[in-house]
Amino acid sequence: MNAEIEILIAMAAYMLAVILIGVFFAKRSQSSSENYFLGGRSLGPWVAAMSAEASDMSGWLLMGLPGVAYWCGLADAAWTAIGLAIGTYVNWLLVSKRLRSYSIVSGNAITIPDFLSNRYHEQKKVILGISAIFILIFFTVYTASCFVTCGKLFSGLFGMSYHSMMLVGAVFVLIYTILGGFLAESASDFMQSIVMIVALVCVLLFGVNAAGGLSNVIENAKNIPGYLSLTSLASPVVDANGVQQAVNGVPQFGEASSYNFLTILSTLSWGLGYFGVPQVLLRFMAIRKGSELKSSRRIATVWVLISLTAAVFIGVLGRCLLPVDPALATQSGAENVFAQLGKLLFHPVFAGIIMAGILAATISSSDSYLLIAASSVSKNLYEGIIKKDATDKQVMRLSRLVILAIALIGILIAWDENSVIFEVVSFAWAGFGATFGPIILFSLFWKRTTRSGAIAGMLSGGAMVFFWKLVLKPMGGIFAIYELLPSFIVSCIVIVIVSLCSKKPSEEMEAEFEQARTYKDSF
Q1: How would you write 454-475 as a 3-class SS string?
Q2: What's residue 39's pLDDT?
Q3: Among 275, 240, 304, which residue's Cα sits nearest to residue 65?
Q4: Please, what are the domains in the chain?
Q5: Residue 40: what pLDDT?
Q6: d(Cα 402, Cα 181) in Å, to the nearest integer?
Q7: What digits encode the pLDDT tens for the residues 304-321?
Q8: Burial 411-423 (b: 16+ CB within 10 A, else e)
Q9: Rg of the chain's alpha carbons, rounded to an integer?
Q10: Cβ atoms 377, 394 nearer than 8 A
Q11: CA 207, CA 456: separation in Å to the nearest integer?
């Protein structure tokens, strides 16, 4: 049997299992909007932890991060991974319990915009509207990155058109999301998180063995200027089309470029994004008992440490085993290194399961993005502002239409087959981190935060992401840092200044803050 056919069969079997999970949970998830969007707060610690990380990491973990390490060495990928690992732990440690308690105390909120609006006792739903709009914008970008992953994966594996394969992946994700809702998403994410970590570890271990041991991998990397340094970047020599040049089978590199302290600090700031990403924050709200969050924190941290470490070193491994692979000769193409190693190292059937790891990551993220974006429109904008007497059926019907619309826009954004997944994800991540991260932290831990401060902080953080990325960053120099760090800082400063200059929160709001701080489950 043709190897590509065997890989396809293995992947199809996996996709069938995911669909069956959706069918199993469909009836329960469709019973109400709370079940559809938050699963009735019924997640156990293992499902909460691993589905949070799987939905967060996406295909970026198996394609984007290894691709960065393969293309320019350890520094960019490693500092990003370190920032994310720290951010994961701190988020579960500080935010999870307080957010779960506060979301229950403040009107049993089931979405992040709901929580923020209820937290500040809004009459005019300004925070609700701003939150929903930003979620819609950034999750549409996120969804596009997942579709890019599907297109690259399938076109690289089977030599078929990127556009047709991207559309196939998008349709599958769309059907699955509409069918299953939050419970199906979380249950399948749990399974997919296992597939992802097993795939990463297997590729790393078998690859190191095929390379003749870790020492050979390291020696190969040492021959590339700046490749193993944490303070410099390797510089591939490319032609006018961005294709890396090779001489006698040896990829060519120029002099390493500097990776200074400010750049390291801005790359570490990836960890700040965790405080604002709805797909993780929703898992905090959905866990069945606050007492189980400690177990979830440990599970999530271990999963992240293993997965990120493996993903970074798979990129380094790829430079040893596939130094001049034509499929990896551009910055965009380098993101196929995990898939190419899977094909090289394993029997087609097992390679298909490995490839399912990428598909798992993509599905686990894109269904989260679509679902949360749909809830921001149907639950927050429509029911919360436009038609306050909307029935649950109307909300559910609109959510499916919104999912379809977001998917179509995501397809348009993903149409460029030269898109770099890492760059697309980094922009959306910065958007969430700067728009929601500061106000989530201040809302949970500073009683003096006001509604005006919340509005100003969200608007300034979100706007600064666009301004820094599109206007300041192209200037280079000090402005070349990752846009999340300056935008997060600006948002924090604005929240403090505006809150102190505006009227003190009401006694009712302060009492609710104290109630959330001391809240304990009643069962």
Answers
A1: HHHHHHHHHHHHHHHHHHHHHH
A2: 46
A3: 304
A4: 3-28+40-517 (1.20.1730.10)
A5: 47
A6: 14
A7: 999 999 999 999 999 999
A8: bebbbeeebbbbe
A9: 23
A10: no
A11: 50
